[in-house]
Structures are given as structure tokens and as C-alpha cells.
Design a protein that fits this description.
205 residues, globular, five-stranded antiparallel beta sheet
């Protein structure tokens, strides 16, 4: 009888151990990518006397690709404006409808130094206001004015996002010019981003 009890105890321990192992989910590694020459052309404006227009280029962090989907996008670019799929339309021409719950924030720090979204306060687009502020020195860029009219990413300004799927991403804009060459066409974004595909996990490491 004693031997049967010991055998039962051993079997129970093995079963509990196996059950515990089965419940353990291995985290998916964070994704780190560089996107080059994302075209975000704005028509009109900029002293032309013509009304501002142009389709926003939508981007999905989960796939790491540009998308034309009405729903499966996180962030959209046109000119220097960056929209998020959360909140409401701001009122600018041809902007996409918001149907997600994406939030964004501009965080000060190095790209490597922003290691988590845990304590970040997110905002969404609203009437007349983008979550990522527009205008020189207000958000992610500086405008040099005449004679160069250059748009330059502000060093140490990192964009952090809570995506439509409840995940987190960070972005470092590297250039606003084709091939990262200020002598070439503007409105071509190059940026680094890190995306954590594990829902609810705020770490970027």
C-alpha cells in the first residue's frame, strides 16, 4: 500500500509539471526594422496658393508594411503631418477616417534609451489637433526656413505608439528626404521602429 501511495505521488508530480509546462507561453521576440523612402506626398499648400490635399500613406506596425486598408492601420503620413488611427478626424483634407484606438506620444530620449512604454501618456487625434504635434519645434521636426527650407528630425524625439491591437511600438524618424539625401525630393520618410507583438507587453527590449 505504501508503494502505491509513493507511485501515485510521483505520477501526480509529473502530471502537474507537464501541465505547468503546457501553460507556459514563449514570448515572441520584439521586431526591429528600418523603413526607407515611405512616400507621403502632400499637394498644394506650402506657399503654392493651392488647397492642401493628397492621400495619407497608412502604415501597419504588425505587418511592417504600407496598407490601403480602411481599418488595419496604425499611423498615416502626409507631408509633415502624422495621423494615428484613434480619436477623430482633425479636419484636414483627404485624411483617413479613424476607427481604431491608437494612441501616440512624443518622448524625449535616445532611441535605445526608450526601453518601455509603461509610463507613457498617450493622446489621440482630435478636432484641429493631431496627437503628434505639427509645426516647427512642436513635435518631431524643425523647419529651417529660407534659404534651405529644410525639414530636419529633432534629435532625441522618439514617437511611441499604442497600436490598434493593444501592442506597443516606438519610432525614430531619420530623414524626410528621398534616400536620406537633403538634395533630393522631400516627403519621403525613413525611420527605425521597434514593435512588441506580445499584447500588453510594454517593453521594447
Amino acid at each position: 500500500m505504501k508503494k502505491l501511495s509513493i507511485l501515485f505521488l510521483v505520477l501526480s508530480t509529473v502530471l502537474v509539471s507537464c501541465s505547468s509546462d503546457d501553460d507556459t507561453t514563449t514570448p515572441i521576440p520584439v521586431k526591429s526594422e528600418k523603413i526607407s523612402n515611405l512616400e507621403a506626398i502632400q499637394t498644394g499648400g506650402q506657399g503654392t496658393g493651392n488647397p492642401v490635399g493628397g492621400v495619407f500613406t497608412k502604415f501597419d506596425f504588425e505587418t511592417g508594411k504600407i496598407t490601403t486598408s480602411d481599418t488595419d492601420w496604425d499611423v498615416a503620413f502626409r507631408g509633415t503631418n502624422i495621423a494615428v488611427n484613434g480619436g477623430t478626424v482633425t479636419g484636414v483634407a483627404e485624411e483617413p477616417a479613424r476607427n481604431g484606438s491608437v494612441g501616440a506620444a512624443v518622448v524625449t530620449g535616445t532611441f535605445a534609451g526608450v526601453t518601455s512604454a509603461k509610463d507613457v501618456t498617450f493622446s489621440q487625434d482630435a478636432d484641429t489637433v493631431f496627437a503628434i504635434p505639427t509645426g516647427s519645434d512642436n513635435g518631431w521636426y524643425n523647419y529651417a526656413g529660407p534659404p534651405t527650407h529644410l525639414i530636419s528630425p529633432i534629435p532625441g524625439k522618439i514617437l511611441v505608439f499604442k497600436t490598434r491591437n493593444g501592442n506597443y511600438a516606438k519610432v525614430e524618424i531619420l530623414s524626410y528626404y528621398q534616400d536620406e539625401d537633403t538634395s533630393k525630393k522631400s516627403q519621403y520618410y525613413t525611420f527605425n521602429y521597434v514593435y512588441n507583438p506580445n499584447k500588453g507587453e510594454t517593453s521594447f527590449e
